[in-house]
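User: Hi! I have a protein structure encoded as tokens and I'd like to know what sequence might fold into it. I'm fairly new to this, so please keep things simple.
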């Protein structure tokens, strides 16, 4: 196989070729298009009256010589602008908007003016430490911010056909190529925060210039090698740190503890991990590196089998924003950064393109329906950085080790990586629903939508109608431009216990493949219809017995959607609630919550406390009072004021 074989094995449709008509996801697409992208533009320009200012656009104006002033923000502040540009480009690809396009063009022009003659682009080292570029890769994110700008350049080119930003990032990438490598006189290093790797592969995809792929491979292969580059660099700069105490975080934090091919488990900073793994998967695909791909699969399995929350969140420790050890998934102390779930989606998406398997999109779905959309308020203007599975506001306020947890979303952050990350993911959602090759189409997500793809010269329009996962039927109409034989693959989620497939009204006996898909191969004609019935009953689930935080507890789910109890529905002291193990969960639509929301109800008990007395400890037989426990989807929590919340609830049987 050559480069193109792996790439063409599964393609993703262009964003403009997918129309999302789904009532559930449609509102998020509209929210990003109409509110989130415009709001974040105002934030980046410091036009919103909030406690934390961005200063990101102003940094570029200062670096371009258009204003006087000092650099403000984190050393990686440029990446906020890059991610916004990427999100805006995705919006423009599907929804042309002259006003937004004008803003994007103006920012690109500004970025061009801030770029050095040799291609270097970074406002921090242009304004604040001009003579120190490429001297602190361990801490200062130069290649990370460059990677995000490259991603933006590729997205803008694909969306608009304009080369203005693409030429800027090619010049930047060419500069990086001239600086880094194993050759004499080049820097044999890599960034402390992976990102450049996957970005360079994207640039290779649109330019066909193999040096970008070679450079991505260099960064992947060099990471974690001895002699350890970050120590060499540290000695050269006199052991000075940009962040006080950074060295104590260790090599795992930087994903540089081992060469990548020796890694067998996910450790360290979770966002850095999944960004690196995404780049590894890309390099494996384009260089036909089966060894590297097998490492990616091993790391993915370690995450989803031992280190992922039921909400698709990853990274359980606030210290180092990191993975810790197998089954360590505390609910109230969870870090569970939004960017980590976004990165997990990037990683799983790439693995599925190389070797289609339902388990990859099980992870995509879990993260998408819970943590990703749950991190953003219903109005699109407030965000969670950390996504806990249990919140007791007094604990968050009073305990130092819970200060990372917030009981309500914030309008912005000093380190604002998460909000534009959510925007760029949701704005590009269409590319995740389907994939295809010359003789097959995969339906990976059951999101109401339409797509047109070309299979062996035949144009095929596929229209999907779905209210999944709150209703159980998915209808797919196929309209090939002429009769054609090809394969239609439908993903059967891992949690699904039964399903039925109908073709033109006739039930077909379909056996799930080892990949977790069912395959329908036939001569397709215009107006053929496939119906997938996929029951997603509301049910209680348990976690692995080694997840110590959840022993004796259950969570309520419907398909990929996780539910939670909130104080607004169940009163204070949610820790005193227990689900009746013998009860059945019921799904109800409540039009009075947040404009209408599916809720779950289950019989349970509340431990009585009014007769305990004032003693701290005493001999006592607990009393339990029957109650109805009401739960809402996790993605909707914290939209009704500050209060308690918990996903995992104690379970009793009498």
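Assistant: Happy to help. Inverse folding works backwards from shape to sequence: for each of the 654 positions I chose a residue that suits the local structure. Here it is:
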């Amino acid at each position: 196989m050559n480069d193109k074989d792996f790439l063409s094995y599964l393609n993703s449709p262009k964003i403009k070729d997918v129309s999302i008509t789904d009532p559930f996801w449609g509102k998020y697409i509209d929210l990003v298009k109409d509110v989130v992208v415009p709001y974040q533009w105002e934030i980046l320009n410091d036009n919103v009256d909030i406690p934390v200012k961005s200063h990101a656009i102003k940094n570029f104006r200062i670096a371009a010589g258009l204003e006087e002033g000092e650099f403000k923000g984190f050393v990686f502040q440029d990446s906020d602008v890059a991610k916004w540009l990427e999100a805006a480009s995705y919006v423009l690809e599907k929804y042309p908007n002259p006003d937004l396009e004008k803003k994007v063009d103006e920012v690109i022009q500004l970025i061009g003016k801030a770029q050095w003659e040799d291609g270097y682009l970074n406002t921090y080292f242009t304004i604040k430490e001009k003579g120190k570029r490429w001297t602190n890769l361990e801490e200062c994110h130069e290649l990370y911010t460059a990677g995000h700008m490259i991603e933006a350049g590729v997205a803008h080119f694909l969306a608009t056909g304009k080369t203005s930003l693409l030429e800027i990032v090619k010049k930047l990438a060419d500069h990086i190529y001239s600086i880094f490598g194993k050759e004499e006189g080049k820097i044999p290093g890599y960034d402390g925060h992976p990102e450049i790797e996957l970005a360079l592969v994207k640039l290779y995809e649109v330019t066909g210039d193999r040096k970008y792929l070679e450079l991505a491979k260099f960064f992947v292969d060099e990471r974690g090698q001895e002699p350890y580059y970050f120590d060499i660099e540290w000695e050269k700069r006199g052991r000075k740190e940009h962040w006080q105490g950074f060295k104590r975080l260790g090599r795992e934090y930087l994903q540089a503890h081992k060469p990548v091919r020796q890694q067998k488990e996910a450790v360290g900073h979770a966002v850095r991990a999944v960004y690196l793994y995404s780049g590894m998967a890309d390099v494996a695909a384009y260089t036909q590196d089966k060894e590297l791909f097998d490492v990616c699969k091993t790391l993915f399995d370690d995450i989803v089998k031992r280190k992922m929350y039921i909400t698709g969140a990853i990274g359980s420790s606030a210290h180092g924003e990191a993975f810790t050890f197998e089954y360590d998934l505390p609910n109230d102390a969870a870090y569970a950064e939004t960017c980590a779930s976004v990165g997990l989606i990037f990683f799983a998406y790439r693995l599925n393109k190389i070797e289609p398997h339902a388990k990859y999109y099980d992870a995509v779905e879990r993260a998408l329906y819970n943590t990703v959309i749950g991190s953003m308020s219903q109005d699109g203007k407030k965000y969670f950085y950390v996504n806990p599975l249990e919140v007791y506001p007094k604990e968050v306020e009073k305990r130092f080790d819970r200060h990372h947890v917030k009981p309500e979303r914030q309008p912005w952050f000093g380190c604002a990586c998460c909000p534009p990350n959510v925007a760029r993911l949701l704005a590009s959602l269409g590319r995740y629903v389907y994939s295809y090759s010359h003789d097959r189409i995969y339906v990976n997500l059951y999101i109401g939508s339409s797509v047109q793809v070309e299979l062996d010269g035949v144009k095929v329009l596929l229209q999907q109608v779905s209210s999944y996962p709150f209703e159980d039927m998915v209808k797919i109409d196929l309209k090939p431009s002429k009769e054609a034989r090809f394969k239609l693959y439908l993903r059967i989620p891992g949690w699904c216990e039964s399903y039925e497939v109908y073709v033109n009204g006739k039930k077909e006996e379909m056996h799930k493949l080892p990949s977790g898909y069912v395959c329908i191969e036939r001569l397709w004609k215009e107006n053929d219809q496939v119906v997938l019935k996929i029951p997603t009953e509301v049910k209680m689930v348990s976690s692995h017995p080694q997840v110590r935080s959840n022993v004796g507890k259950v969570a309520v789910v419907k398909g990929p959607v996780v539910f939670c109890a909130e104080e607004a529905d169940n009163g204070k002291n949610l820790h005193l609630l227990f689900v009746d193990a013998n009860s059945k969960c019921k799904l109800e639509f409540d039009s009075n919550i947040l404009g209408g929301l599916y809720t779950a109800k289950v019989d349970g008990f509340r431990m009585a406390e009014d007769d305990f007395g004032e003693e701290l400890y005493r001999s006592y037989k607990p009393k339990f009072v029957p109650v109805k426990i009401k739960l809402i989807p996790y993605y909707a929590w914290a939209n009704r004021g500050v209060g308690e919340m918990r996903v995992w609830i104690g379970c009793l049987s009498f």
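A useful reference point when you look it over: Residues 23-44 form the longest helix (22 residues). Feel free to ask if any position seems puzzling.
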